[in-house]
Design goal:
heterodimer; A: mainly alpha; 9 helices; B: mainly alpha; 10 helices; 0% strand; elongated
């Protein structure tokens, strides 16, 4: 009970709400790097996945991407890129974290988009061609909207995983909410550790809820949103 | 001016990227960490499988429980590992139990989904035939449904195992971690020694994941000889 009191006191302490180590600035750092990583991964993964799915080719790449993604821990990518980043003069923190989060988000987006487009009912594609649609039109007007529940679910799942993994960035000297957990472990301050854990969990759940709501709005009426996506590595 | 020696060495451009001599000197430690990594993974997947089988049997027996079971395990799966450890450390400390609670929780969703999907995928006419031959529900589950669901179940075990091997590295933060220990310690050196440790930990962990994946695939082929026969026939 005393512990809970300390926890409440931590959250009420105005010290923890101001300055570069305060909650608002840590949350902002956390969101910043998560958004950049997820958007970058989507920008790189979506075009080839859409095209390969449209051609119904490259299934091997889709399976390999998700398997390799699962086998290489984000923590290891972050740690490995740290010395490289220092050598290239890119400094600590930001770039190693960004690369690791990018690598985490990429495989699920690629694999799910590919299978989503590939599994669109061939009869619909056939009908589109019969109406004189070009490849690009078939992809834009039929396959992409039909696959949109899977694609958006994959983006949501990846974004949540990125937000959940970004705390590791504190290990390579970047900020974000992981600072509270990692620094708390270091000085054995369980209150700070738990406060960090609560903030990370809230941000992950918030991401899930917000993107879930976006999904409901964006997916065309008549198609249902889906939970059925392949997830990547867990962190 | 003489170069002063400092405990805090910054990597120099002419320094080799990997210090092979470090690996040579630390083979025993690397092997011990690999064994620890395997033990942590086997316990987590083993316990996860037992719990998942139990929950799957409940979900199959009482259909209404399936949605809540996947909902709860889905939430467990979404909790960031670092946050989960943050919640547990004040209660269970920096122990193997803390690590295992986290590792086991993350296997549940994957395993339960695959077990239930596998058993649901057994064709109805096969169940009908078994029932006609006088199989009791229990015998039918053990002799017919479980073996036929094995390929899907093992697919789940493969995903859970590979994911767990990666996650074990993070438990280094709470003093466990197997090969993650080297990754975490390597971060404290800004030199080739550090890079070498990170690389050694990563390569061995990925190698472990690949070997485990291939091994389980082999096990599946061994346990389901009829699947192979059907392909060649």
């Amino acid at each position: 009970m005393e512990f809970l009191g300390d926890l409440v006191a931590w959250f009420l302490d105005p010290e923890n709400w101001t300055g570069p180590a305060g909650i608002p600035s840590r949350v902002w750092e956390h969101i910043q790097i998560s958004v950049v990583a997820t958007v970058a991964a989507a920008a790189i993964a979506l075009p080839p996945a859409l095209w390969l799915g449209h051609r119904r080719r490259g299934g091997f790449a889709a399976v390999a991407a998700i398997n390799i993604g699962r086998a290489i821990p984000s923590f290891a990518i972050m740690a490995l890129f740290l010395p490289i980043s220092i050598r290239l003069g890119l400094g600590l923190g930001f770039w190693p974290t960004l690369l690791a989060l990018f690598a985490l988000a990429l495989p699920p987006i690629f694999t799910n988009t590919y299978t989503g487009v590939r599994d669109v009912d061939p009869a619909l594609v056939e009908a589109g061609r019969g109406m004189g649609m070009t490849d690009g039109e078939v992809l834009r007007k039929i396959e992409a909207p039909m696959a949109s529940p899977v694609i958006l679910a994959a983006l949501r799942v990846s974004a949540v995983q990125v937000v959940a993994t970004a705390p590791l960035a504190a290990l390579v000297a970047w900020g974000g909410l992981g600072r509270y957990i990692v620094d708390g472990f270091a000085v054995q301050d369980n209150v700070r550790v738990l406060a960090g854990g609560i903030l990370v969990a809230l941000l992950s759940i918030g991401t899930e809820i917000v993107l879930g709501a976006v999904e409901k709005r964006v997916v065309p009426q008549g198609l249902t949103t889906t939970e059925d996506v392949v997830t990547g590595a867990h962190a | 001016m003489t170069t002063g020696t400092s405990a805090f060495t910054i990597a120099q451009a002419d320094e080799p990227f990997i210090r092979w001599d470090w690996i040579g000197r630390n083979l025993d430690d690397l092997w011990a960490a690999t064994q620890e990594h395997i033990v942590l993974t086997v316990i987590a997947v083993g316990v996860g499988l037992v719990v998942s089988l139990g929950l799957s049997i409940i979900a199959l027996r009482w259909r209404k429980t399936y949605t809540p079971i996947t909902w709860v395990t889905g939430i467990l799966y979404t909790i960031p590992s670092l946050a989960l450890f943050a919640f547990l450390v004040p209660i269970t400390g920096l122990t193997m139990l803390t690590a295992q609670i986290g590792l086991v929780s993350y296997t549940l969703l994957i395993l339960i989904r695959n077990i239930v999907a596998g058993i649901d995928g057994v064709p109805a006419h096969i169940l009908e035939a078994a029932r006609g031959m006088g199989y009791t529900p229990r015998r039918m589950f053990l002799d017919i449904q479980l073996p036929l669901a094995l390929p899907v179940i093992i697919a789940g075990i493969r995903i859970a195992t590979v994911t767990t091997i990666g996650l074990v590295t993070i438990t280094a933060l709470i003093g466990q971690g197997g090969l993650g220990f080297f990754i975490l310690r390597g971060l404290q050196f800004f030199s080739a020694i550090g890079t070498t440790q990170i690389l050694a930990g990563t390569v061995l962990s990925v190698a472990l994941a690949v070997v485990a994946d291939i091994g389980l695939l082999g096990l599946e082929k061994l346990l389901t000889p009829w699947a192979r026969r059907r392909v060649t026939a």
